[in-house]
Design brief:
The structure is a single chain. By secondary structure, this protein is of the alpha+beta class. The protein has one domain: Class II aldolase/adducin N-terminal domain (L-fuculose-1-phosphate Aldolase), CATH 3.40.225.10. The protein has an eight-stranded mixed sheet with strand order 1-5-4-3-2-6-8-7, with helices on both faces. Helix 2 runs parallel beside helix 4. The chain is globular and about 45 Å long.
Amino acid sequence: MATPVKTDEGYVGVKFRTVFDQHEPPRAKCVDELIHWCRRFAEMGFVGKAMGNLSARTPRGFVITPTGTDPQTITPRQFVEVTGVDMVRLELHVAGTHEPSSESMLHDAIYHARPEVRAIFHGHDAELLQRAEQLGIPVTEREQPYGTPALVREVLCVVPGNEFFVMRGHGFVALGGDCAAAGARIEEVFNRL
């Protein structure tokens, strides 16, 4: 498990224990699609203090971007497949060689709550956070610390029936039946800004 390192942005790393059950990175088809959307995120300007995270469902769980990776230079070997999440013990079982995104527990909870969702994209944009309610975008009731069960519980209140929403004080989340649908939702919302 990586040792959390506090930075001037307030990021302290992952808040769970990672168990590497397999040290081979995932070979899922969705990895190429996720790389495409990581680079698209960079083009759209969602890369700053924190990129966010992108994932896609697999038969064993989901593939997700690793924590602290530059989306413009990410490679297939850096992706992680999360195969099990224990929210009580704050423990993730993974296949890969990198720490999974700090929001992996959130992705897992959304996939369990919405079986039809096959891709989850999370990013950050200050203007959208300020204008979300004005634009009619659902927003979580309370701000919660990233990577925590408290944030998961807050998000699960807005997940039913919403394909795009904002985590108060944090960032946006787009859901889709595939990566293209999740990405298209983001582009559609940002065309309205």
